Amino acid sequence: MADKMKVEKAKGKLGILLPGMGAVATTIIAGVHAVNKGIAEPIGALTQMGRMRIGKRTTNNQPLIKDVVPLHPLKDVVFGGWDVYEDNVYEAATKAGVLEADLLKKLKPALEKIVPMKAVFDKEYVKRLDGKHIKKGKTKMELAEKLMKDIADFKKANNCDRLVMVWCGSTEIFMKETEVHKTLANFEKGLKENSYDIPPSMIYTYAALKMGIPYANGAPNLSCDVPAMVELAKLTGTPIAGKDFKTGQTLMKTIIAPGLRARALGIDGWFSTNILGNRDGAVLDDPDNFKTKEVSKLSVLEESLEPELFPALYGDLYHKVRINYYPPRGDNKESWDNIDIRGWLNYPMQIKINFLCRDSILAAPVALDLALFLDLAKRSGMSGIQEWLSFYLKSPQAPKGLHPIHDIFKQLNKLENTLRYMVGEELITYLGQDYEV
């Protein structure tokens, strides 16, 4: 066995804080309560149901991931968060319409007790939301300090040993990195001066990292994906992961595109369109907010296929992404993909995909895994960008100058090898013969 990292035990209670307690957040919370009551299975969560190989193939040793590394048990998890609407989790989950009423009724007493704190929100960044349950402050620094007080109060009230934060809020308008994001000093000056380039999601990020709380970004907002936040994460010894939960259509792309590239098949065009009717769909109906999501979705193919290395195969690829708000569909998103590919001697072929998915059902286990793995990373002394969690994200965060990995199978291999490294098991490289590692 290799040397292993010193990983602290998962003692006490873990508080999972969720900015944005809409469809995704309430589905996570209700789901964990249902699992703990024994009335549902945590399908889709690698931390709960995933297995990984340990040692040589001949030993056929594939334990549950949670039996390999000391993940925090779900029975000792508590939830809190913020929202622009004051509905408790039961009310919010009922309105979201993701989970069946019969299931929610069984969980009602526990869900009603979870009430969101007032959110840091500015309609300038999310024009299609109009909630009134929001914090007031003269400066963005004052708002950050109020969030930090919320966090401290929550930790004390719930007797939590540790906390982690996962952004489940809306997609903000498209923003680019500016001078205020370059250094922590610049950023803190910007908070005090109410810089327009600091949206609400970054205020949450700053508050979490300042207090040493691991942070994951489930939306395509810049959030923790700027140098100032990376600097702060390193300064406070805090792990971060971003951005944008990889769920429906993009999940399919990270499965299919690497396969086509592996076979050296050409791609001329990839047309993607979606319909959905939840709060996310309403927000993305605004062009400024859709631009943020579009950039995240487009980057998947550009960075997976590397057309600069394979100009004959992907140099002229036309990639189009559309999202259409369609209220009757609710959280049940439907995506269509048309892929025009080329094979031997340039003969054309097509692939059609129609994915009728459930957006929050796919996102909930992703958010839960990120929370539990980030807590594990913190207890293992890891800080800064956690590339091994790219598996869960549409537009994975990577160190400056490096392209993120989008191939889901390479991402999974990196995730599993990181876990093996933590506990001193041999890394699996797939070299050698059947009887070797």
CATH class of the largest domain: Alpha Beta
Outline type: globular
What are the secondary-structure elements, in order, as H or E? EHHHEHHEHEHHEHEHEHHHEEEHEH
The CATH topology of the largest domain is Rossmann fold
What's the CATH architecture of the largest domain?
3-Layer(aba) Sandwich
Largest sheet: 7 strands, parallel
Please count the helical segments: 15
| Number of strand elements | 11
| Beta-strand fraction estimate | 15-25%
Q: Work out the radius of gyration.
A: 22 Å
CATH H-level name of the largest domain... which superfamily? NAD(P)-binding Rossmann-like Domain
Strand order of the largest sheet: 3-2-1-4-5-6-11
Mean pLDDT: 94
User: How many distinct folded domains?
Assistant: 2
Bin the helical content: 25-40%
End-to-end separation in angstroms reads 12 Å
Query: Structural class, please?
Result: alpha/beta
Low-confidence stretches: none
